[in-house]
Amino acid sequence: MPNPSEDTNGDVAEIRRVLTAHAAALHDKDVEAVMANVSDHILCFDMAPPLGTRGAAEYRRNLETWFSTWDGPIDHDHSGMEITVGKDVAFATAYHRIGGAKKGGGAHSVWGRLTAGLRKIEGRWTVVHEHVSTPFYMDGSLRAAVDLIPDG
Fold first, then answer.
1. Which of 82, 84, 85, 130 is at a distance of 20 to 30 A from 10, taking alpha carbons?
2. Which residues of the chain have pLDDT under 70?
3. pTM, full prediction
4. b/e map 59-68, b = 16+ CB within 10 Å
């Protein structure tokens, strides 16, 4: 596979554009814009239960439920994104921050980890796998490590 910093025929730039559009759609709580970038057969391992979801319909339902818990836009940032591209498969990794005002009060901000798997389907890069996670302390408490921030 090419080096993550290599731009293979514009694929890295196009994948970055897809993921940036995806992040903007999450910020705006725009379900249709999020769905425009994901496969009908997406497999998602998200921070919220269940352990995983498969398919666009389930992904959409979970997204709508999650959006309804926020009051206003959702802050959404990436840090340290690296993209590795093959002929028709790619993956991107980054630190991922979400935040904003939750319904019922309180502002939240948490860093986690993001891995997105993409496939080039009919000439278009599409998210087929999304894995967002938060580490937890392995000291027996099982507390989510929501106080961590990326280095740099």
1. 130
2. 1-7, 9, 152
3. 0.88
4. bbebbeebee
